[in-house]
Amino acid sequence: VQLQASGGGLVQAGGSLRLSCAASGRTFSGYRMDWFRQAPGKEREFVASVSRGSWTQYADSVKGRFTISRDNAKNTVYLQMNSLKPEDTAVYYCAADAYTSTPSGTPKPDYWGQGTLVTVSS
Question: Which burial class, exposed, middle or buried, applies to 64 when counting CB atoms under 10 A from its CB (0-12, 13-18, 19+)?
Answer without folding.
Answer: exposed
